[in-house]
Amino acid sequence: MDAIEWLESLRIQGMKLGLDNTRELLRRLGNPQNDFPSIHVAGSNGKGTICSILSNTFTMNGIKTGFFSSPHLCKVEERIRINGIQISNSEFLSHIEKLHSVCQIKPKIKPTFYEATFLIAMIYFSSSEIERAIIETGLGGRLDATILVNADCCILTPISLEHTKILGNTLLEIATEKSAIAREGMPLISAWNEDESVRNKISESVNSPKLIEWYKPLPNEKMKDEAIGLANLALEKMGLNFKCDDSAKLTIWPGRMQRIEKSNGLEILLDCAHNPSGIFRAFEEISSNNDNIKNIILGCTEQNNFEKFLKPIIEYINLNEIENIILTEPQGGRTESVKVEKLFDMLSSRIIETKIHLEILPLDALNKGTLLTNNATLLCIGSLYLIGNILSVLGLDSGESMSILSK
Q1: Domain of 328: which CATH number?
Q2: Which residues of 101-113 are buried (b: 16+ CB within 10 A; e: fewer)?
Q3: Which residues span the domain enclosing 326?
Q4: Residue 369: helix, strand or coil by DSSP?
């Protein structure tokens, strides 16, 4: 079994919360995560955006910066970057082999796929002698492998009900899991939450009220602006003399409000708003931009609250006289896609004049949407897997195409 086959074989384990395996493998590797300070980011929405902005900010200020994120859209190498550039395939393979070798030491350890990618990132960052890392939490915080990094600042983005089978059924339980990333004696920057009990729970995660700073967004503030505000507050709390405003203008976080110009006046707008709060914020921003959207491609995974997820979509379609909505099923993801027939049943009686098309494969959905859209914008929205599918179909899945720093 070669290195890639071994890594891929780890997928069958699925998700497994807990730190014992990762902690032991880090020990066998010489604890590479302690060779550099990290900013650790958790939350439900906007984690990747703030992390990409912070990564570019440190890079543009001459600081060699590693960035670990998950999941990936198209290729696994996207999860691991230095100065915004994703790890090369050859380096990725060599570090998989190093990880595999320490996994074979008795007692043998079989990490999850996610844990393996995190460990490979730590090996790569350490061997490359980075000066700073930006680390995005995978799921939750308290039992996520990334909590083992040496963090000197933590950031909590807006939280919402998600992954309730794992993180808890209430916002309070989820806040408990995510705010557990707070490190003793280190600052915690948190997005404001309207629920006082949630704010109190987040405050309990730090041992001094002086360590926590709240960021309260302005009314109708865009997601990227909120990320900039949180990032700037973190830099200020860390005593750094630079800000994120200039680097944010040059930051491209693929699949998040990403615009692609095509021929015949066609623009494709991609956004992986994959939960109710994310989809609400996405359509709030789309509405404020006055985009000339005529057609929509939608594909998603199961939701904790489908009514809440679909409501902003339905309202936008009916208010803006959308001509066509094309329902599809994201391919290749860890989580099963919602069948187009199910989406049709939930939408058909609530959409006034818009035509509904069913195309199981995202490739066919994109072809249909392209044919139907002239001199207007085609919106593709929903699952991360859907956006990854679309980018791959468009041939925009190379390392250069997935760059997070505009030239």
Answers
A1: 3.90.190.20
A2: ebbeeeeebebbb
A3: 258-393
A4: helix
pTM over 0.85? The answer is: yes
Residue finishing a domain among 207, 225, 249: 249
Q: Who's near 378: CB < 8 A, 6+ residues apart?
A: 266, 267, 268, 269, 293, 294, 295, 296, 297, 369, 370, 372
What DSSP letter does each residue of 252-295 carry, written as one string?
Answer: --TTSSEEEE-STT-EEEEE---SHHHHHHHHHHHHHHT--EEE
Give the mean pLDDT of the chain: 93
Residues 54 and 40: their CA atoms lie apart, in Å, by 11
**Into how many domains does the chain fold?**
2
What tokens does 393 get?
Answer: 């179909």
Written as six digits, the tokens of 138 are 């995978």
Lookup: tokens for 146: 């990334």
Do residues 336 and 306 make contact, with C-beta atoms less than 8 angstroms apart?
no
Contact 58, 174 (CB under 8 A): no
| pLDDT tops 80 at residue 186 | yes
pLDDT tens per residue across span 305-319: 899 999 999 999 999
Percent of all residues in the chain with a pLDDT value above 70, rounded to a whole number: 98
Residue 26: which of 132, 78, 129, 98 has the closest Cα? 98
Residue 333 pLDDT > 90, yes or no?
A: no
Residue 395's pLDDT band, with cuts at 50, 70 and 90, is very high
- Return the structure tokens found at 43: 């939350």
| 106 and 190 housed in the same domain | yes
In 3D space, the residue among 313, 280, 301 whose CA is nearest the CA of residue 383 turns out to be 301
Tens digit of each residue's pLDDT (9 = 90 or more) over 8-57 = 999 887 777 789 999 999 999 999 999 999 999 999 889 999 999 999 99
Spatial separation of the C-alpha atoms in residues 171 and 338, rounded to whole Å:
24
Do 46 and 282 form a contact (C-beta atoms < 8 A)?
no
